[in-house]
From TrEMBL:
Principal cellular location given in the protein's record: membrane
Lineage: Bacteria, Bacillati, Actinomycetota, Actinomycetes, Micrococcales
Pfam families from the UniProt entry: QcrA_N, Rieske
Membrane topology, record value: Multi-pass membrane protein
Boundaries of every Rieske domain copy: 278-342
Function comment: Iron-sulfur subunit of the cytochrome bc1 complex, an essential component of the respiratory electron transport chain required for ATP synthesis. The bc1 complex catalyzes the oxidation of menaquinol and the reduction of cytochrome c in the respiratory chain. The bc1 complex operates through a Q-cycle mechanism that couples electron transfer to generation of the proton gradient that drives ATP synthesis.
Compartments, as annotated in UniProt: Cell membrane
Listed name of the protein: Cytochrome bc1 complex Rieske iron-sulfur subunit
UniProt-recorded Gene Ontology molecular function terms: 2 iron, 2 sulfur cluster binding; metal ion binding; monooxygenase activity; oxidoreductase activity, acting on paired donors, with incorporation or reduction of molecular oxygen
Positions of the UniProt region annotated as Disordered: 1-21
Amino acid sequence: MAHEEDALEHERASWKPSPGLAVAVPDPVHNPGLPPHRERITDKDPAAMQRAVRTVYTLFYLSLAGSIWAVAAYMLFPIESGQIVDIRHNNLFIGLGIALALLAIGIGAIHWSKAVMSDKEHIEPRHATRGRDVTREGAVAVFREANEESGFGRRTAIRGSLIAALVASVLPGITLFRGLAPESSPENPIAGDPVALLSHTMWKKGERLAHDPTGEPIRAADLTLGSAVHVIPQSLAELSHSDGYLEEKAKAIVLLMRMLPEQIVEAEDRKSWSYNGIVAYSKVCTHVGCPVALYEQQTHHLLCPCHQSQFDVTHGAAVIFGPAARPLPQLPITVDSEGYLVAQSDFTEPVGPSFWERH
């Protein structure tokens, strides 16, 4: 088959038309060029141009209003109240405000470019970039020409509304950061101290380990080998949202796992912290606080889904991969007289991310 293809190729290459035989040679592809320029209605009608300009800066001012509303909604519907309706309204109205702010800026910018800016075709020749004076002067000329074509310097209403909208668009995000660092008060003196806040949870001596979120206590005999159970303090289930349920749960969540006792390598001072191969570790990642909830039964590794930090449960939840800076805090556990798993004490170190150690 290969010999036949070679023969055909050789025959095509050596073929020449006979004298007097007409051969059709196709014409080269014709360049159609640019289509005729069609003027926009705003180019032909000054009134239409004014309407377009008003539409653009109205959209920018609408974006400004959306940003202000998002900040106002944060204060009108405080999530600190703990009421579920306030939490829903907070998320809804802040989200609507931010969405309106960003959407109005985007629509306004698109309408500005399509209806107001210069609508002429340009050819931009490519050339090597040089750092000489003539290059810098050319760059200044480009910016000057762009300013003239866009009307940014002349159309003060559009320029002012755009700047105001862009500045205001970041305010909702800055406002939301306030909830991450509540100020201390006589009622809550440790509110402004992250070390104190993360050093104490609802776990205490004799506190039963319970299923999340039902609050049903857990018997050691009910845990099978290889199991991983999401755990909260039993008394947490009795709290309401107005009493700080979410805040306390965020610090006290625990992952409970059972292995063969001989698989656990324990430090001398922690040999009594587990019970018959059952260990309990904080679910809050020591990197940025994401929930560490993925357990590999074969390797006994815990995986944080946010930034892929991995912890070895058989060796004190030590960090074996990823950006986490320290092992997961371990909760000392035992069983009570009825066979239920209970805590021996609170965590002996702060839970959660280690950002507070940087100072």
